[in-house]
Amino acid sequence: MKKILVLVIMTIASMHVCAQTDVQTPQGPQLEFALQLKVTLDKPYSVGKTPHGGRNVIPITGGTFEGPRLKGTIINGGADYQMGIEGRTEIEAIYSIKTDDGVYIHVRNRGIIATGKGDDGKPTFYFRCAPKFEAPVDSKYNWLNNALFLCQPDFNQQFHGIVLNVWEVK
Predict the structure, then answer these.
(1) Alpha carbon of 110 to those of 83, 90, 151: distances in Å?
(2) Are 83 and 112 in contact (CB under 8 A)?
(3) Which of 11, 30, 33, 39 has its CA 20 to 30 A from that of 64?
(4) What is the mean pLDDT of residues 79-101?
(5) Is residue 103 scored above 60 in pLDDT?
(6) How far apart are CA 145 and CA 137, in angstroms?
(7) Residue 161 CA to chain centroid, in angstroms?
């Protein structure tokens, strides 16, 4: 019985020491600006309520993009497919871009739009995406295939569409 009591005390003491150990927060990844897309859009339409939620589609009609390592136009014909329930929408935009030197790149941009109320009762709005690029492997844009990207939309009142700022995760 005495051995068990000593073992319990030692276990509790070691748990207390472990709990007091400072855990160093690791440094997170760095972000580097990659490009800005200015996407023009047509009028959205609703497919209606589906088994997965309400489905809306926003046609992509064109636009431009520019960054330190690439520049060009957004090809007409893609769309932003949105599936949502009250307060939360999942988005998946599928389209292609063409660089100013004639290279086509496929883009699939997935994200979340969430609205609600914070702890203080004020409205909250969260809108972030993670675009994935598919560039020809034999092109100077192959680097797009081998990196992760994050996107934050910017609702610019002077531009009739959506502005997407994209960062490469380093």
Answers:
(1) 11, 7, 10
(2) no
(3) 30
(4) 95
(5) yes
(6) 8
(7) 18
Closest CA to 91 of 123, 117, 54: 54
Instruction: Output the six-digit token pair for 165.
Output: 């700022």
Cα 132 to Cα 150: distance, rounded to the nearest angstrom: 9
Residue with tokens 């136009």: 73
Kindly compute the dihedral angle of the four CA atoms of residues 120, 84, 148, 135, in this order, to the nearest 10 degrees.
-150
How many other C-beta atoms lie within 10 A of the C-beta of residue 67?
Answer: 16
Q: pLDDT tens digit string along 42-65?
A: 999 999 999 888 999 999 999 999
What is the C-alpha separation between 26 and 168, in angstroms, rounded? Answer: 19
Q: What is the pTM of this model?
A: 0.81
Q: What tokens appear for 164 in the block?
A: 């997407």
Least confident of 15-29, 73-87, 105-119, 134-148: 15-29
DSSP structural state of residue 44: -
Structure tokens at 42: 């047509």
Q: Residue 74: exposed, middle, or buried by beta-carbon count in 10 A (0-12, 13-18, 19+)?
A: buried
- Check if the beta carbon of residue 33 is closer than 8 Å to that of residue 68: yes
